[in-house]
Amino acid sequence: MLRNYSVCGRGLRINAPFFPANSENWEKFLVESTKSDITVECKISENLPEIKGEWSEREQSDYCIAENVLYKRIYMGCADGAVIKTALNDFSKKKITFAEGSFKTLMDERYMWSTIGLAESLLFLDSLLMHASYIDADGEAILFTAPCGTGKSTQAELWRKFAGATVINGDKAGVSYIDGRFYACGVPFCGTSGICENKTLPLKAIVELGQSKQNTVRRLTGLSGLQAVLGNTYIDMQTPGVPVRCVELINRILNSVNIYHLDCTPDERAVETLKSALKNE
Fold first, then answer.
1. Is 90 exceeded by the pLDDT of residue 244?
2. What is the pTM of this model?
3. What is the per-residue burial (b if ≥16 Cβ within 10 Å, else e) of 46-81?
4. Among 25, 64, 171, 189, which residue's Cα sits nearest to residue 116?
5. Which residue, 112, 107, 114, is CA-closest to 17?
6. Residue 243 to residues 88, 237, 249, Cα–Cα distance (Å)
7. Per-residue H/E/C for the chain
8. Residue partners of 109: CB distance under 8 A and separation at least 6
């Protein structure tokens, strides 16, 4: 079964034995057959392939490099999981072998993006996946980013209530370089927020959040800006070639998009503080 999606302005083609039924969010990103920038071939096998090489073990996945090919074994709670095969010189093409009994879990709409290694494939196409709440504020995108529990969804909701913004995704967003500038992109997964829309807008600002009893905002540049974005990016920094590419792309974002740190209260005052800072730029 073949499905074509457009994610972050890039064509994604997935060929799989079947797709789990609960794919409502992914269906918003379905497109007719078109040019594919990323292709993923999936199959289910009684036995996973045996790879000769030295495996590095990690909590959620293991990896091995053999003859210029990267193999990753992922589990996500599955006993056997799956093996992903990617050429080190081309992250746009992936072949995944699933153990019997693992496919439905690993290809659930909540986890499919992680299973297919979408973040690293997009990275090499000038797109970044971020842990961020994405809002449409008067036709431009603002991304609120921070560790879980800091208040991304709270600030997004405050902007909806007091500034007439629309929440596009409550937990995740793409940042893509398209036609000479950076855009924020909706993505077909949203964590527990439940808010997931397919919308692409010019990126006005990325705002790192901190909790405080008073509202203060400051611009982040150089290393502080890099750390704010990198610390909230979905990417496996142990994958060969990824760290350099990721830092290069973030530096390009820093040169084009304003990055802020907002220490904030969970009320309308935080909205007014940030609006004032954005207006003065």
1. yes
2. 0.92
3. eebeeeeeeeeeeeebbbbbeeeebbbbbbbebeeb
4. 189
5. 107
6. 14, 5, 10
7. CEEEEEECCEEEEEECCCCCCCCHHHHCCECCCCCCCEEEEEEEECCCCCCCCCCEECCCEEEEEECCEEEEEECCCCCCCEEEEEECCEEEEEEEEEECCCHHHHCCCCCHHHHCCHHHHHHCCCEEEEEEEEEEECCEEEEEECCCCCCHHHHHHHHHHHHCCEEEECCEEEEEEECCEEEEECCCCCCCCCCECCCEEEEEEEEEEEECCCCEEEEECHHHHHHHHHCCECCCCCCCCHHHHHHHHHHHHHCCCEEEEEEECCCHHHHHHHHHHHHHC
8. 20, 22, 23, 24, 25, 26, 188, 189
The Cα 28–Cα 9 span in angstroms is 14
Return the biggest CA–CA distance within the chain: 61
Q: How far is CA 262 from CA 33, 134, 167, 230, 278, in A?
A: 42, 16, 19, 17, 12
Q: Are 29 and 5 in contact (CB under 8 A)?
A: yes
Band (pLDDT 50/70/90 cuts) for residue 76 is confident
pLDDT in tens, 206-224: 999 999 999 999 999 999 9
Token couple for 135: 């809002």
Type of residue numbered 105: T
131: nearest Cα among 117, 119, 121: 119
